[in-house]
Structures are given as C-alpha cells and as structure tokens.
C-alpha cells in the first residue's frame, strides 16, 4: 500500500483526523488540536522577544486585493474563490430543479467579493500600506490564519485547508534579511527541541507554467526561499514544515509600501505549517501523545 495512504489511514484509525470524503479536507480531533495549540505556544515563546504586532485575519480576503497581489499570475492552479447564489425566486426554482435532476447547478452562482486566503500574509500588505510610511525601524507582524490551496492529495501533509502562522518583517533590505537569517537559526532550534529529524534547503514556490519554471529557477538561484524539511511520508521527499522567504521589494512595489526615508520597502517572512508539524510529531513519536518522550512532553505541556 502507498506509504502516504498508509499514514493517512493510521491517522483516521487513531481518530486524529476525520475523513470528510474530500482529499485534503479533514476534521481534527481534540488531541490533534491540542498539539497544534502547544506548538503555537512554542512558536510564540521563540518570537516573543521581538514584540511583533499580533493581527488575525479570517480565511477569506478582499477579491480586489487578491487580484492586485499578483497571485493569479503565479499560482492560478491553487486559487479558490467564493461563489454565492444571487438570484430571485425563479432562479431558486431553477437551482432546485438542477439539484433534483442531478445536474450541474454551479451556473446559478456568481463570484462574490471574497476569495479564500492563500497565505496568511496576503491580507496584511494592503492594511500596512494604508498606515503610510513605515516607522524608522520598520514593522513586524504576527499572523495566523486558515489558508486554502487547491491541490487535492492523499498525502495528509498536503491539505487543501490548513493553518499557517507567520512572522512578517517590513523594512529595508538589510533589516528584513537580518530577520530571515535570525529565524533560519531559530527555526532549527525550534524543530530541534521537538526531537524531529530535519534539513534546511533552498527551495522555490510552485509557479505555474513555462514562465513559472523560469521564475522558480531564478528564485532558487537568488536564494530567496529556504525550507525546513522533515520526513513525514518519505525520507526521499521530506515535507516542508517551515519556510523562510525574502520577497525583495515585490510587495513594497505592489502596495506602495515605503520606508521612513521614502524608499520602497522590502519584506520577508517565516511561515510555520501548523498541521504539518503536528503530523511530523505523530509520524515520528507515534499517534498516542501519552507515549511521547518525557523530554518532548515537557517542552510542549510543561
């Protein structure tokens, strides 16, 4: 049996994940959520000293902002939109007729002004830009959101809806690169105390199409993205559990973000795949949290 399906079945059998009938869309048990909460608190303990501003957005964002962000240019295959019924009584009757006959009823829906958030930081940039120029030392934000990416899979670490915790740094090139370098070290320490095997390697985002392949190659050549990888389903293809990203001035130019001196701001972020780290813990330490090593339980539960 495929290793990915085998691990997913173990998670279902243990009641940690709940099958909804859609690949990559799962319910979570109380035990699974408790591990997420403990990992979330551990992240906070590693980042508390920086004094980040805490912001929490819903899992949906402004469609106009989404379109302006450029996400559809790079990742159209991952995007998710929200459609709604906006018809009258006749339209409702037509929809019900389609349902009763087992026909496609999607044409009775219209695109709304909401899209599903693809990454926790995407709603942040227009908000930050509305505040005007950054202060002298830039800004640092602490984010957490459910995110959506349309990539159905039997790999439990590749969920369609998942949580992403992020720290996002805005400022000069030197400021944001120093932030990323600090978190490259902290990330290693963080996963180390969870007693998980890992490696850090240069990476690229899943850009779409022929032009996307060129962008991915350029991203790797410039070292703009690194990932902390943990074997979850495979030692040959370990799972990216943390990512460390330097966006250069892309979001600064897109949203008119400027430094205190009036230059285009640069941004960087560190992202934590909350479910992925939980899955790595269950993979390497077992599905029964009570049997986890005492040293690890002290880290997470005190």
Automatic annotation (TrEMBL):
Keyword list, A-Z: Ligase
**Does the record's keyword annotation contain Ligase?**
yes
GO molecular-function annotation terms? ligase activity
Please verify whether the record's keywords include Ligase. yes
Give the InterPro entries listed for this entry. aa-tRNA-synth_II/BPL/LPL (IPR045864)
Domain of life here? Answer: Bacteria
Q: What is the designated name of this protein?
A: Amino acid--[acyl-carrier-protein] ligase
Originating species: Alsobacter soli
């Amino acid at each position: 049996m495929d290793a990915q399906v085998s691990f997913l079945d173990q998670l279902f059998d243990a009641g940690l994940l709940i099958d909804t009938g859609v690949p990559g869309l799962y319910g979570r048990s109380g035990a699974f959520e408790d591990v997420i909460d403990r990992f979330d608190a551990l992240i906070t303990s590693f980042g508390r000293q920086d004094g980040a501003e805490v912001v929490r957005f819903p899992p949906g964002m402004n469609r106009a902002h989404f379109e302006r962000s450029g996400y559809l240019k790079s990742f159209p295959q991952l995007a998710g939109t929200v459609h709604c019924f906006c018809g009258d009584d006749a339209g409702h009757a037509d929809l019900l007729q389609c349902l009763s006959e087992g026909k496609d009823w999607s044409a009775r829906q219209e695109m709304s002004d909401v899209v599903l958030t693809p990454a926790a930081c995407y709603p942040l940039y227009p908000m930050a830009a509305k505040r005007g120029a950054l202060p002298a030392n830039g800004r640092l934000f602490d984010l957490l959101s459910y995110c959506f990416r349309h990539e159905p899979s039997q790999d439990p670490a590749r969920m369609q809806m998942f949580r992403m915790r992020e720290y996002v740094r805005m400022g000069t090139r030197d400021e944001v690169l120093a932030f990323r370098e600090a978190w490259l070290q902290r990330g290693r320490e963080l996963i180390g105390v969870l007693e998980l095997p890992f490696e850090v390697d240069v990476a690229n985002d899943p850009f779409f199409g022929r032009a996307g392949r060129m962008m991915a190659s350029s991203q790797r050549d410039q070292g703009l993205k690194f990932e902390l990888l943990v074997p979850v389903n495979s030692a040959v293809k370990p799972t990216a559990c943390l990512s460390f990203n330097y966006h250069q001035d892309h979001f600064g130019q897109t949203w008119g973000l400027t430094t205190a001196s009036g230059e285009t701001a640069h941004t960087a972020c560190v992202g934590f795949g909350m479910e992925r780290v939980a899955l790595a813990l269950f993979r390497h330490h077992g599905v029964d949290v009570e049997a986890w090593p005492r040293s690890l339980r002290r880290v997470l539960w005190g």
